[in-house]
Amino acid sequence: MKRALQITLNEVRLYLIDKGDMAFSILLPILTFALMFGAFGGDTQFKATANIVNEDNGTYSQQIIKQFDAVNGISVDIISAERANTLLDRSDILIAFYIPAGFSDALASGGEAEITIKQRGNGGTEGQILASILGGITESVNQEFQVNRAVAANLQGTGVSGGRISVVTQEILAQQRENPSVGVKETTVGGSTDFVNQFLPGIITMYVLFSLSLVAPTLVEERKRGTLERLLTTRLGVGELFLGKFVSIIARGFVQTLILLALSYAVFQMFTPLSFLYCLVITLIFSAAAAGIGIIIASLARTQDSASWIAVVVTMFMAMMGGTFFVVDANSVLATIGKFSLNTYANDALKTVISQGGSLADAWQPLIILAAVAAAGLIISRLLFKAVQGAGK
Asked: Distance between CA atoms of 166 and 294, rounded to whole angstroms?
């Protein structure tokens, strides 16, 4: 065991010495995390700025602006007409809303008033949404005037002043806006609303599988150069040699996923300390299973090219059939084929902890399968190396 540990430490030392390899291993998960944060870390709510020219500054124009600003995701920027025209001419903005002077006075006197929309082309998707929101707000104002007129007509001759009617009507309508009789409920169909929770397990397993395509050719090259055979001329046995290589492969794959998990823990705050520890344990066991497959490939392959191609094919098969980035129907043929993929079991275990808030006890079945694959891979690779090469003690 001591000699196997020395092999592992030597492999780790060589890994740390190779600055390019080490930088690639560290920077790649950081880059992936940055892309993941850009795709899923932002707010999914619509956000836009409404550029409004308010030449009125009356009661009703202020009311419209206040309602516009109260819409979630909308911010209001009050600018001058000259500024708005300049920005439109330069295409710095695609749409602007003009409230003319005398707007509130016209409405107060029972007349009509208009808000002018100036836009370049169709105003863009954002502009169309803003125009639609403004349409809803003005329609609400129109309804208030209609209610006021209807109530005033019904109370005509009762002695109730128009001002009192207007105040009471405004209070009732404000209460209705705060507690509407008809609400809207959003339901997401076909997936989780938390995309990070949904895709992080697949990204983690992909990084572990990278060890297949990286490690197998390296072991074949060492065998071709006679490095392994020279080691076997010492007191080091085949089992100790493979155990040392096996642990070093696990360490390499684990470092990358540790970085990715740590960044997700720090930025998205999606873990508790205990669930973070659970994910590390699952990743470690999966890394061992992937290392077992990788070392079997290295024992079978005769050239670096063949080792690389076998590793790539195995990696792609496991990623596609293991439900890495899409849900596989449990009753489909793909689900049956996916039982031969390590990703199936690793993804199930990680989703149990990350998405469902479970523990290792809840994910014991896939973890046992992964641990069995790891142990079988180490034993089979040792036998294959001895049989194929005829070099074993």
From this structure: 78
- Asked if 227 and 174 count as a contact pair (C-beta separation under 8 A), the reply is no
- Distance between CA atoms of 93 and 381, rounded to whole angstroms? 64
CB-based contact 283:202 (threshold 8 Å): no
Summarize the chain as % helix, strand, coil (round to 5): 70, 5, 25
Range of the domain at 84: 48-178
Amino acid identity for residue 247 in this structure = V
247 & 328 share domain: yes
Q: Do residues 315 and 211 touch, judged by C-beta distance below 8 A?
A: no
Domain count, the chain: 2
d(CA 156, CA 98) in angstroms, rounded, equals 36
Whether 22 and 101 share a structural domain: no
282: number of Cβ within 10 Å: 28
Examine residue 189 and state whether it is found in any structural domain, yes or no: no
Q: Work out the number of other CB atoms within 10 angstroms of the CB of residue 270.
A: 16
Dist. CA 328–CA 335, nearest whole Å? 6
pLDDT one-digit tens code per residue, 132-172: 988 888 887 777 767 666 766 776 667 677 666 666 766 66
Query: Could you give phi then psi for residue 96, rounded to 5 degrees?
Result: -145, 150
Beta carbons of 240 and 7 less than 8 angstroms apart = yes
- In-domain check, residue 185: no
Check whether residue 204 and residue 270 sit in a common domain. yes
The residues facing 51 across adjacent strands are: 77
Encoded tokens for 220: 């074949």
H-helix or E-strand containing 30?
Answer: helix 19-40
Beta bridge partners of 99: 54
DSSP three-state, residue 327: coil
Instruction: List pLDDT tens digits, range 31-60.
Output: 766 676 666 555 556 788 899 999 998 888
* Number of C-beta neighbours around residue 65 at 10 A: 20
pTM listed for this prediction? 0.57
Distance separating alpha carbons of residues 213 and 259, to the nearest angstrom? 20
- Domain match, 239 and 316 both: yes
Q: Nearest-CA neighbor of 47 among 84, 68, 69, 75?
A: 75
